[in-house]
What does this fold into?
Amino acid sequence: MMPKRGPLCVGEKVQLTDRKGAMITALLEHGEVVQTQRGVIPHDDVIGLVEGSIVTTRSAAALHQMQLGQGAGMAPASTGDDDGSIQDAKKPWKAARRLGGWSYTVMRPRLADYVLSMPRGAQIMYPKDIAQVLTMGDIRSGMRVLESGAGSGAMSLNLLDAVGSEGHLTTIERRSEFARIAGLNASVYFGGMPKRWELLTGDFDTVAKDCTEHGYDRVVLDMLDPWNRLEAVERLIVPGGVLSAYVTTTTQMSRLVEQMRERGSWTEPEVSETLQRDWKVQGLAVRPNHQMIGHTGFIVVSRAMSPGIEALRKRERATKDTYADIDGATAAESLEELELRDISDRKLRKVLRDLEHQATVVESGMEQGALE
It folds into this structure.
């Protein structure tokens, strides 16, 4: 998508931000207004401005008078208050406490702002997770990407932006209503449905059968059971291609990782989560904000091996058993053995020798002190 410059036009989305950081996103239309808690902003006051301008809310009464005056061929009614306090340049925030007279900065929204404010059906991925997928998943211009799970289109918009005009995105969404929402969000953002996007509706296993074998450089999965799709993905992704999977729970993450290892067709999975903490910086008051965006999901990233080649695996030490479960223990496995599976007998003997020596030294020192 080419960056938009110059005056704001009808059909563009704008982001209005006040001095407290409150944001409002609106699609510009002639004759419409943005309603705020401190008055209204006519869209016509915004159309034609350049980014970085300031607009001020009007009271409903002032807007009504202005509309009547314009309709009668008269000059617009003043938006100031009867007592003239709105003209007090030294303390403009006092007048802003009343309805009307509250200022907003006008900008075109960033993609992250658009994603967070767009209408949604399904829960979206947060920008912090999307950035991790794009970076660790190595999704770049000109690539062919397969995505499963469009949701409301948050990830899809970023993928379309990343692959650029030379790339191509194929998205499979099981629910037709979600596919419709994602498609409309993309149409509003890009000014029409991108030609480089193929949005398919249906079950992943069924739709994927008709997709080109080894036709995708990257695959992104956002679904409940990605481990059940590994066989299909292996057929579709090129050797060396990167698979990125987004899952929300530890059980999903663990099951996916173990299944990838068991299949042997994937390099050792990399698992990460991103926690976002914003900071307050005001003079000497520099501290983290009280609220943060904590756990939202895990990103599992791995690369596809060449067909028939098994991935190398790190050899586990024989003294460690991290897979035996107490509920499935056999008669030969005692409770003590399972509880101590992360510590060897040799290490236990070393720890005991060290502690016994320390205890002897302490006792000798106490006895010597008592004699003195």
Notes: The two ends are 86 Å apart (CA to CA).
